[in-house]
Design goal:
Layout (H helix, E strand, L loop, with lengths): L13 E2 L13 E8 L4 E2 L1 E6 L14 E4 L4 E7 L4 E8 L5 E10 L4 E6 L4 E5 L1 H28 L6 H24 L4 H9 L14 H4 L4 H27 L10 E4 L2 E4 L9 E7 L4 H17 L4 E8 L3 H11 L5 E6 L1 H6 L6 E5 L5 E3 L5 H11 L2
Parallel strand pairs: 1-3, 2-9, 13-14, 14-15
Antiparallel strand pairs: 2-6, 4-5, 4-7, 7-8, 9-10, 11-12, 13-16, 16-17
């Protein structure tokens, strides 16, 4: 989720609008008062509002349309509890733009939204004032260190001392911002913003949190986030355990995948008397695609009775995998639709993960990339 920037698709960013509905007075009303910069043409926005789990389905029909007039717009909605709101820009022609704004709408609060060419600013009643303060700190932090990193990359030589100084300054500044969040954890705007951008785990903010905040209007969000953090922690522990069991020298761990009415197993290929190079990859993964030519080259050079290459389609849709296989002219066999089966078995948290197995099924090498792939294969084959 991008809470800071309007994502643009087009030369000129367009902005948006609203038609407000009359609401029962007894229910809390959320209000947006918006302005757009001079660089943006008057246009419209589709309005999407998330569910109680803070999910937004942008493939569904929008709940409303906002119309910008004279660089201003407004929108109101009655809500019983906080929800995410997503505004999708539309050009005057009716074409849907890639630009969007997303943030949280809060019962009884008013958001002042300033839309600029490439980003937006959010302010207003107390919740959004708190949001704005931390957002400003975060943006200044990002701008400062992005600029410093760019200047360092431009240097003809970069000493380790300079790198260490940069890293230390970065860490100190980040710690300062995190300390601010901890000190202001009882401000709901600060709490929500920091959690949404992953600045600090909610579990670290719970100790000392006021009961009216912990069990207030954001209770469901806090509970949901804590559950996600616990699940992520458990997944990390399981991955570490699987990684330890599949280190170099260990015997391979089998897994299976179902696709098109057939079951494929890693053991269909590994442990059958050949060296097998296994590539855990996905069609959407840029680094994976960059390794494919290396794998094809090794396959074409050494395939035969002693060597094989296979791909394992990981976290990918089968149709997307098939399209990538055709596009990249991948000649070696694939275990289709493995999803998380292979990654769970081998403790893989990022792809590509390229593993070389010995003829008896033992793991020879993990994490192969680039020219090291052929170097390791040649060494094992005695070439």
């Amino acid at each position: 989720m991008n809470t800071h920037f309007l994502k643009t698709a087009g030369a000129v960013l367009s902005l948006c609008a609203v038609a407000a509905c009359s609401q029962p007075k007894e229910q809390p009303t959320f209000q947006i008062n918006g302005t757009v910069s001079e660089e943006i043409s008057d246009t419209a926005y589709y309005v999407y509002i998330g569910d109680t789990a803070f999910n937004i389905d942008t493939k569904a029909a929008p709940v409303d349309t906002i119309i910008v007039k004279d660089k201003k717009f407004s929108y109101s909605s009655t809500v019983k509890e906080p929800r995410l709101i997503y505004l999708q820009a539309i050009f005057k022609s009716g074409e849907v733009c890639g630009a969007y704004v997303d943030f949280v709408l809060v019962p009884g609060e008013t958001a002042n939204l300033k839309v600029c060419n490439g980003y937006f600013e959010l302010d207003g009643t107390p919740f959004y004032q708190q949001w704005h303060t931390l957002d400003t700190m975060s943006q200044n932090f990002q701008k400062k260190f992005s600029a410093k990193a760019d200047s360092l990359r431009a240097l003809p030589e970069l000493s380790q001392e300079t790198v260490n100084a940069f890293n230390e300054e970065y860490s100190l500044s980040l710690d300062k911002m995190r300390s601010y969040v901890i000190e202001h954890k009882n401000e709901e705007g600060t709490l929500f913003y920091s959690t949404m951008v992953g600045m600090i785990p909610v579990s670290q903010l719970i100790p000392g949190m006021k009961d009216e905040v912990r069990n207030g209007k954001f209770k469901s969000f806090i509970d949901m986030t804590l559950a996600k953090e616990e699940a992520a922690k458990k997944a990390e522990e399981q991955a570490a355990e699987a990684l330890a069991k599949t280190s170099e020298g260990a015997m391979f761990v089998d897994f299976s995948a179902e696709y098109d009415g057939k079951t494929q197993k890693l053991s269909d290929y590994v442990g059958k008397g050949k060296y097998v190079l296994v590539d855990f990859w996905a069609s959407w993964c840029g680094p994976c695609r960059r390794e494919i030519p290396n794998l094809i080259d090794v396959y074409n050079k050494y395939k035969g009775s002693k060597f094989e290459v296979i791909g394992v389609a990981t976290w990918d849709e089968p149709d997307d995998t098939k399209a990538a296989i055709a596009e990249l002219n991948i000649p070696y066999p694939q275990i289709m639709n493995a999803q998380e089966a292979g990654s769970a078995a081998y403790g893989i948290r990022g792809i590509p993960e390229i593993i070389l197995f010995a003829p008896d099924g033992k793991i020879v090498k993990r994490g192969l990339r680039g020219s090291d792939i052929e170097i390791e294969v040649k060494k094992c084959l005695g070439k």
